[in-house]
Design goal:
The chain has 304 residues and is an alpha/beta fold. The protein has ten helices and twelve strands. The two termini are 40 Å apart. It is an enzyme of class 2 (transferase).
């Protein structure tokens, strides 16, 4: 679940990403599917501009223009290898490394046309996932020293959930449920349809006894009902500070509490210090601010 370390201490390795054991790299099939879809979107019937170029051996370098946590190497590599299986990519940083603006991340050696045709798609993956990892790392740092874990949500870019949730792990966060299939999460509409929190929990336990059960509550009365019925985690939604602290007191560690709704980086530390166990933040994957990267043909400039 948690990546831990927020990118610190990841050793660069030219053979591939080296991450803490809890940061599972997505299966190659998932990466391949993402890349095939993205390249088809961009290339269509062929890169008519690249076709004008002589197609000899060429080098290129990947430059990061701002401070960032680097994420997305599997997708970047797959983009370039899909168009030029013989391309050589020499990484100077590891997945999860923190880098400064102006860092050359990788050197590439391949065919000219393939390098320029894969450029935009490979950068789109790398800048988006690095943006998610960088934002996550900032949130994880804000709660350092508390018991709170930072979680993502299902508010992801369509078709990129596996990739974005991987980036959250690289940034030091934890994943909430991947989709609607791997955990039961009873929210306001589910409780209303079932008639009560107790009835909804009973139905969930009977139908899916092997899945984690998360229950969203909107009042302290609902919190008491969820504690009485039992579940794996309780999500307190949009509680003000005083009510949130009272919820922590009432729960008394019996069932982990998760906070969601109205959370931003400025308010994060205070929420964590109230003693909650998890804080879920849709903005990690929804409010994507891409990291500024570029791929340039030729050798990198001499280090200043």
């Amino acid at each position: 679940m948690s990546a831990g370390g927020h990118g610190a201490g990841f050793a660069a390795d030219a053979s591939g990403p080296r991450l803490p054991a809890r940061v599972a790299v997505p299966p190659p099939g998932a990466v391949t599917a993402d890349v095939e879809r993205a390249l088809a979107e961009d290339l269509g019937g062929g890169d008519v501009t690249a076709a004008l170029l002589p197609d000899g051996p060429e080098s290129a370098y990947l430059l990061c223009k701002q401070d960032a946590v680097i994420c997305g190497r599997p997708w970047f590599d797959a983009c370039h290898r899909a168009l030029d299986p013989g391309v050589r990519i020499d990484w100077r940083v590891a997945e999860g490394d923190r880098v400064r603006a102006g860092t050359v991340l990788a050197l590439l050696h391949g065919r000219t046309r393939a390098l320029v045709s894969a450029e935009r798609t490979s950068l789109n993956f790398m800048q988006t996932l690095s943006g998610t990892a960088t934002a996550t790392a900032a949130h994880v740092e804000a709660v350092r020293g508390t018991r709170a874990r930072i979680l993502d949500t299902r508010k992801t870019l369509p078709g990129l959930r596996i990739a974005q949730k991987y980036a959250v792990r690289v940034g030091g966060g934890d994943n909430h449920r991947m989709g609607l299939y791997d955990a039961v999460m009873l929210k306001e509409n589910h409780v209303r349809a079932a008639g009560s929190i107790g009835a909804a929990i009973a139905a969930a336990r009977a139908s899916q006894p092997g899945l984690p059960l998360i229950v969203e509550v909107e009042t302290l009365d609902e919190l008491h009902a969820a504690l009485e019925a039992g579940c794996d985690r309780i999500l307190v939604d949009d509680f003000d500070a005083a009510t949130r602290r009272e919820a922590v007191r009432i729960a008394a560690g019996r069932i982990p509490l998760e906070v969601s709704g109205g959370v931003d980086l400025a308010s994060l530390r205070a929420i964590a210090e109230d003693g909650v166990d998890c804080i879920s933040i849709g903005g990690l994957t929804k409010h994507v601010r891409a990291v500024d990267l570029s791929l340039k043909l030729g050798p990198p400039p001499p280090a200043s």
